[in-house]
Amino acid sequence: MRISIRFKWTFFISIIILAAYLIVAYVAYNTVDNVASATVTHDFFIKLVWIGIIVVLAGIVISFFASTAVLRYLKVVNNTIDDLNKKPDSDSRIKVRKSNDELYDLTVNINKMLDRMQAYTNQQKEFVEDVSHELRTPVAVLEGHLSMLQRWGKDDPEVLADSITSSLQELKRMQSLIQEMLDLTRVEQIDSEYLEQETEVEPLFTQVYNDFKMLHPDFAVNFDDDIEPGSKVKIYRNHLEQVLVILLDNAFKYSGDRKEINLAASTNEALLEVVVQDYGVGIAKKDLKQVFNRFYRVDKARSRKRGGNGLGLSIAKRLIEIYQGTITVESVVGSGTVFRIELPIVNSELDKNMANKND
Ligand code: ADP
Known about the structure:
Layout: H1 5-35, H2 38-86, H3 102-153, H4 157-188, H5 192-195, E1 199-200, H6 201-215, E2 220-226, E3 232-233, H7 237-253, E4 260-267, E5 271-278, H8 285-288, H9 300-305, H10 312-322, E6 326-332, E7 336-346, H11 348-358
Helix pairs in contact: 1-2, 3-4, 4-10, 6-7, 7-10
Adenosine-5'-diphosphate is lined by residues 246, 250-251, 254, 278, 280-283, 291, 296-299, 303, 308-314, 337.
């Protein structure tokens, strides 16, 4: 059985007032009874009954209005949530009261939670839209090639070979797109255990540098190593490697005739600074801010030809930000591009001092 809070409050507050009144009235009546005549006591009793009725009625009215004021506010909260249940993308929010009390804190918190949830669902929606849009092209290309194969491929060996090669290329592209999309969603849900990991800087950079030098023998790859031996950064090793691979891959992909890449890493007491520089096509000023957005490619056709999906930099940025670092880019069209990363160094002496201070 549903009993309204208003009824419960009114009932209980009235009972408490009545009980308190009865005790006071009983004590007063006994005192009067001991000292006064029977008529005076009787008059006093009648008065006590009337005052009792008035006190209980006043109690009922006051508790009814007090609970109504709070309930009216809860109703506003309820209506807003109802509104959002019916229309999840509606931007209706609970009207915040001016008074600085618990209800004010409650509404501010609920509104903040609604903002966060809405931003999250919008992000998911945009992601699904972006993904469907990105998959449409390779699927259409594949369908075209397969239809061509079905019509003419059986009789024409040239069409057969071309279509199979193109279909396989398109499939590979879809594979890399799916892998990068998975990487991106994984980055969004990094476990907190990774956030406590530390990575020694020098061995990782040496390994990545050697790998790229071997993979691109036609390039002059320089490594300016100014890393304090033994220094560590607070990031999971594979995540830092993933970021370096993304930036170096891009540097190779978007290099022009000048096949030269500079990788530089330096440490001080607070930061690891990384620079990845190429002398390639560059990025126009208007595109610079957007290159970190999901699926953003400056030149869609060129990026597609080089196997780009427009996800690498958004993954790199997200990763670096999760570990409290920064990533920035400078570029001049036709002259080249410089990506810069800064990550906090694990300063064991400083950390030890801080820990001692806290003890
Ligand atoms: P993609 O997989 O397409 O390379 P990214 O997210 O890594 O995706 O990069 C986004 C876009 O930024 C690229 O499509 C390219 O247009 C531009 N870009 C990234 N790195 C460079 C670079 N080193 N030189 C020139 N343009 C770059």
